[in-house]
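Q: Got a minute? One more chain.
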Amino acid sequence: MILIISENKERATNEIIRWLISLEKDFIRVHEDEVFEIRIKEKRIYIESQRNCFFIDEITSVWYRRGGLQFLRKKYDSQAVDIHMNEHQHWLENYVRNFLEKKNHINKESNYHVNKLIVLDTAKEIGFDVPEYFLADNTDNVEINKTIIKCIAGNGILKFQDYHGSIYTSVVEKKEEEDFFITFFQQKIEKDFEIRSFYLNGKIWSMAIFSQNDNQTKVDYRKYNKENPNRNVRYNLPKHIEEKIVILMNKLDLTSGSLDFIKNGNEIYFLEVNPVGQFGNVSFHCNYGLGYEIAKSL
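A: Always. Here it is, folded:
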């Protein structure tokens, strides 16, 4: 039985499920708003929500997409007993998650978020070319028009009550008079094109994105120009780059993810890795059939 942990309205998950049905593989999909109660039946751990119920030892593979397992915690009248039992319930939940993560899996809830700074340090240690980066709380030593800023955190989305806002990579065009919260700065690299690579269990599929020819997308291709889309084509990374990708993903304990690079002349610069990366556009534009590859590996 395959366990899929995802958000309610996640299109990539729906695609994988279609492939699982085609491959006649049994699965359970867990949504982010489900709350499970841990039970014991026949000396086995059994978890149950209003939508799903299963013995955890019946799970053979896990695909963690987004969201996470949530558990119902019992409350007790006595504060001392409640604190004591809350700790017991925490460790029981931790055991269930750990048990499932030891199964054949694509990504894990426990390392859904990666620290961008640690990833970049690790990439440099492995031997990737990485644009120079630093942290600062002012622009005193920042080179104007030669430096970009990015989020330290991987998620550049602000969720407001009525809409979502995205934080894009931008070029520093002027000095700031006042200090600000510690910010991630990086050397701006003039690019021939960008590369998005999807990694799965040691295999890599890459796509070249010709975003530099459009002012809207030249700094951050996620500012999609729907009227005049970027050209996207299959691309083969050099073997030594792919070997470093495998080393990096193993060091980060990631079985899957999307990696971003910039090509400049003979140099390929590593930018970042997204553990729960978007693979749909890479699969669609390059006809890689990544949905099938993911379903087949589960």
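A: The chain has a mean pLDDT of 87.
Q: Perfect, thanks.
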